[in-house]
């Protein structure tokens, strides 16, 4: 069945089939010309873009030309070639994942996009420390509210455990998602000190989030 499907593909006149082979030949020729244009051939290992493009082109050649050729040889020369044929098909499916890496080639032709990616990587350290500070705030306020609101209806609903309190603070205090429900619950039980603590957390959390922007 896989070989029959292969023969159908080889004899197919669909646009996608021939376009794939055209681009495979085009990129393969481009890679050869880039290699021949180098004065020092050893420099190809220092050019990371050339190494990356070489990996993509070799994967494309393997998937488009070599794997189908190997399937035909196994089918015609070995009557018991089905297991090998199936293993080759699995490799071909894995090679299709390399198509996602071709999107990285856009970075070469879009300098602005490359600058944005470099800026995100450079800001990653500050973002990590900001998130760590936010987690510390969530943990500290969660411990305080879990202990102080124990035995109240608001505590049972929103601050039953430390982890549940962290979730409540993150949803209501950081994301400000329907925070009025929590405020109303505190007001109905006259938990004024807890309400002030909630406002303090919202202020600190907002300042922390703004530092990431």
Sheet with the most strands, sense and barrel status: none
State the assembly state of the protein chains.
single chain
Find the count of extended strands (DSSP E, 2+ residues): 0
Number of domains: 2
The number of helical runs is: 10
Order of helices and strands: HHHHHHHHHH
Averaging pLDDT over every residue, what do you get?
Answer: 80
Helicity level: over 70%
Shape: elongated
Please explain how this structure is put together:
With 213 residues, the chain is mainly α. Helix 2 crosses helix 3 and helix 6 crosses helix 8. The protein is elongated, with a radius of gyration of 30 Å. This is CACNA1H protein. One of its GO terms (molecular function) is monoatomic ion channel activity. It is found in: Membrane. It is a multi-pass membrane protein.
